[in-house]
Records
---
Amino acid sequence: MTLDKFRFTQGEPILVVASLSGRQVFGDTLSATLESATKRDKVDSADLPATEDSGYYQGTISSDHEPGEYRLIVEARVDGRPVRHVSSLSIEPDLGDFGGIDSPYVSGNDLVIPVRFDPDHAGYYALHSTGDLVTRHLLENQARWLQSEGLQPLKILAVMDLAGAGGGTELADLAVSIAYNDSWYNWPVKQAVRAFTGIDPQPDNLGVVNDLQTNTARNLSVGPTAIPRLRFVGGGSSYGGITKPFIAGTDDGVVPTHSACGATTASGIDSCSNSISLAGKVSGQNGPSGLYYNHYPILMSEGANHSAVKDTQTGNISVPVVNNTVLNGLQIDFASRTYNQRAWWQLWGSGDQYVEVPNSNQTSMSNLLYTTLNN
């Protein structure tokens, strides 16, 4: 069974192609079921009828569902017995109509490429993942760009970086490597890269992936900024865990913790804190040796994957790191509670100490961010 990609925009049809061959007895139709990756609830289904080409079946299933991680299950009956194949995919929100790119022009030493964007809904849009790197370049240059046009610089209070990839990701390093070495033995690595990028990596289609290489990203617009960068970090699994073996330290399935936290080096780490784990356990941790200037890890969540940090997924405990402080006039005041918990094998004693945002598993991390900081 194959998909043309692993990341789909909400409402985009998901094309599914499957093949069966051999001496077994097959039916004329296969079934495809889409279910949520967390709750395993069925959200859609479709039949895959046989095509004119012997052994091939094809159909589409809708992606017009809540953004998040999903499992696509294709089932066939072979000699009267069910046979299943499961693939992981993600559905991302449709933010609106990107009308295209206007004519580029040179302004000073900068190449300016205007992009027309017509959002579906009014309001605030937070940049996620690669947006961390884009925003860093904007913050370093926006005053000069605007003043050269006779305009006042933007007044920015703070930046919220959700699963920020400003420190790059080892998956981008892999993508570039695979693009120039398409040997058969790289098949497992190629599948991980396809899950991350949604494409078969080739030298001419990498785009921003080039900038997300760890060494490249960490040398782009790295000057100190007076604007606080508030970091919101996940440690869950994406794409069925296929990408995790290729990323240093803990990660959210796409972005390593060293990048999401704002660590000054690309060394693998397990937490944004040296004393609190992503699960909230208060104990010594393999944390960052240092953070970029004005970068503050605010919330961590062991269960939230790359998409869940920004979407509406619930069920994940959020852990406060930098809290009860004021950053550039913005009050950081997440509720918190500390408690002790014994593991099943601990027969006596008070157990280990944990810290969490109370009832944070009842809401999404992005909604928790909004309701707490929008005060």
---
Amino acid sequence: MMSPGYFIKAFSSTVGIAPYAWLIEQRLAMACSLIDSSVYPLAQIALDCGFFRPKPPNANIREATGDDAGALATMAARGAVSSFGSVILRAQIEVYN
């Protein structure tokens, strides 16, 4: 059995980021995809993606893009950005790298 410390080091050296950062990245990617392709409220999407409160993904989105999820969704609806999710994903990569 491997220790938690060894796992974190091995994961980080293989994937390039810490396990928790990778998990948040995956959850944000799923949330972005759902936001782009569904009519569900942000709170439901947050729950579906493993965020237990609506605030954490919005905080991560704000950190990644400088805007909150509602503002980006409005811009996407108006055609100001081609894909709400892709804007977030491109920006949030910089947060974890």
